[in-house]
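> forwarded from #structure-qc
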């Protein structure tokens, strides 16, 4: 295959994949990796993380709270995606919600629905509504396939004009390397930040999910203000590349009327 032909094939395949749209926002995205591969790598990293960071026991009230909220958010997300013909976004997901004893102000959701909440964020969330904000936001990252998109962008840079199958044959460890660059490893899993574009998108999607789950989305601006105020000299991990406070609150308020259409108080 000539360079020109390989480059044409790459561009054509990328264009076809780019036709995929993110639910709620409708943004087009390019994901070159199969979600099954993303989930397989995620499960491996998730299990390794829990092996190094023992989750709290099931009878812990904090775990029960996180799992109760998580179940409601997952159900709401599934219902929304089904209503817009996008159930494929959670195909193969096996939701799990765990809490680890760690002072870091953080939480994350891996592809496949593996969610971990750090105890350090609980004083900031304050209540179930605050926790629903952050969990809805993290779940949105997974459903929007932001990790796949970020890895695909890295893959495009690594490949240059090379066709995907050729690049992977020459460097079989490419996808694993990009996964580590995108998500971290071991105790650092989930600590690497998403782009501001992805963060804003996850904010919007998270509002809809929490609203459908019965949590008032108007709690979201207050939660992010608390996150910022509690950051001190260095921002919490969850804020490392997030939009500025003013921009985030403005964007949330702008989208709030749409989110409130889905609000189902319970």
């Amino acid at each position: 295959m000539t360079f020109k032909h390989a480059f044409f094939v790459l561009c054509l395949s990328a264009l076809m994949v780019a036709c995929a749209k993110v639910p709620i926002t409708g943004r087009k995205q390019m994901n070159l990796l199969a979600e099954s591969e993303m989930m397989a790598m995620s499960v491996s990293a998730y299990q390794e993380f829990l092996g190094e960071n023992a989750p709290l026991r099931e009878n812990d009230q904090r775990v029960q709270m996180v799992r109760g909220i998580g179940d409601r958010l997952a159900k709401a997300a599934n219902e929304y995606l089904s209503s817009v013909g996008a159930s494929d976004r959670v195909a193969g997901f096996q939701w799990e919600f765990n809490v680890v004893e760690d002072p870091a102000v953080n939480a994350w959701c891996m592809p496949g629905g593996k969610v971990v909440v750090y105890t350090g964020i609980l004083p900031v969330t304050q209540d179930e509504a605050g926790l629903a904000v952050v969990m809805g936001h993290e779940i949105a990252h997974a459903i929007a396939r932001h990790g796949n998109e970020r890895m695909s962008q890295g893959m495009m840079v690594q490949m240059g004009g090379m066709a995907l199958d050729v690049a992977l044959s020459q460097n079989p460890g490419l996808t694993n390397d990009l996964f580590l660059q995108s998500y971290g490893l071991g105790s650092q899993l989930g600590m690497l930040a998403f782009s501001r574009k992805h963060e804003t998108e996850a904010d919007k999607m998270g509002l809809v999910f929490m609203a459908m789950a019965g949590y008032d989305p108007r709690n979201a601006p207050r939660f992010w203000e608390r996150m910022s105020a509690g950051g001190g000299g260095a921002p919490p991990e969850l804020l490392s590349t997030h939009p500025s406070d003013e921009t985030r609150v403005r964007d949330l308020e702008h989208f709030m009327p749409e989110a409130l259409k889905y609000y189902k108080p319970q």
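QC bot note: The chain has one domain: 37-148+185-260. The longest strand covers residues 96-100.
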